[in-house]
Amino acid sequence: MNAEIFQRLETEGGWLHFSRRAKWRLSGADRVRYLNGQVTQDARRADARSALHACVTNAKGRIEGDIFFHAAPDGESLLLDAPAGLRETLGMRLERYIIADDALLEDVTEEWQLWHRFGPSVDADGTTGGLICRRLACPGMDVWLPAEAPPPGEALSEEDAGTLRILRGVPAWPHELNTDVFPQEAGLEAETMSYTKGCYIGQEVLSRIKSTGRMPRELVLWTSEDEVAGGALLWREDGTKAGVVTSAARHPLSGLMQGLAYARQGAVEKDSRLLVGNDMASIAASLSIQTLPCR
């Protein structure tokens, strides 16, 4: 991403094309009750005006899926979307627990386009049929269109979309969100979790994390003047392993490297400096820890 594109996106916003994402229709009289037992979010809040963010967790509380869902305009179904790589595994996971429920899960990935409009102009640009949704930690709107419909705008390239996602501190599957991660570790507690909705798979473990405040690690934002790549290990100056870099991008204005990393809980503080390398004998860079922006 160059500086001109970045500045335009900051002032005008843009379109993201998410049609490759997996999509499902969940119908039946028990659809809301069923989904409520599968996700961290309160599915009873679903409506046709906004898309809710949720995690699907296993019995150990770790993330098996990262989804958005909303009530379809027909009033008789819910529409869900998730990263393309989860189309098979998450579809099977959700269908596995439909036993005595009056609920039907159908893969509708090829039937719909999914677009996301983000930026300060979202509320005033005349977009119709959209769902309020903050996929990039800023005002945004999802637009679902039939597969054969013309595109609503010019989409940002996948590379630039990935850069923007990293610069805004948004965790994504599978870099920051995967089956090794608790939702709270990824900073998703406020956005994706309800502690009053009732039982769901993994709830006991996640409620325990809330009550104790303890978790193995936490997602942090970082900046560096050095070249840093995803997968690099992080170390404290005393030689203690502190974490791992999950995503990295170059800021188009400052020229600094910026990204996301998981650090051991309590191992780092804001503005603390960590070393980057395979081990203490091969340190090639350093970075400064920042706090995640509020979503």
Our measurement of the CA-to-CA distance between the termini, rounded to an integer number of angstroms, reads 23 Å
Strand portion: 25-35%
**Overall mean confidence score, pLDDT:** 94
Q: Please identify, by name, the CATH architecture of the largest domain.
A: 2-Layer Sandwich
Could you say how many structural domains there are in total?
A: 2
Shape, please? globular
> Using DSSP, what is the number of strands?
15
CATH topology of the largest domain: Gyrase A, domain 2
Characterization of the model:
The protein is an alpha+beta fold and 295 residues long. The protein has 2 domains: 165 residues, Gyrase A, domain 2, CATH 3.30.1360; 75 residues, Elongation Factor Tu (Ef-tu), domain 3 (Beta Barrel), CATH 2.40.30. Helices cover 17% and strands 32% of the residues. The strands form 3 sheets. A 6-stranded antiparallel beta barrel has the order 10-13-12-11-14-15. The protein has a 5-stranded antiparallel sheet with strand order 3-4-5-2-6, with helices on one face. β12 and β13 form a beta hairpin. The two termini are 23 Å apart.
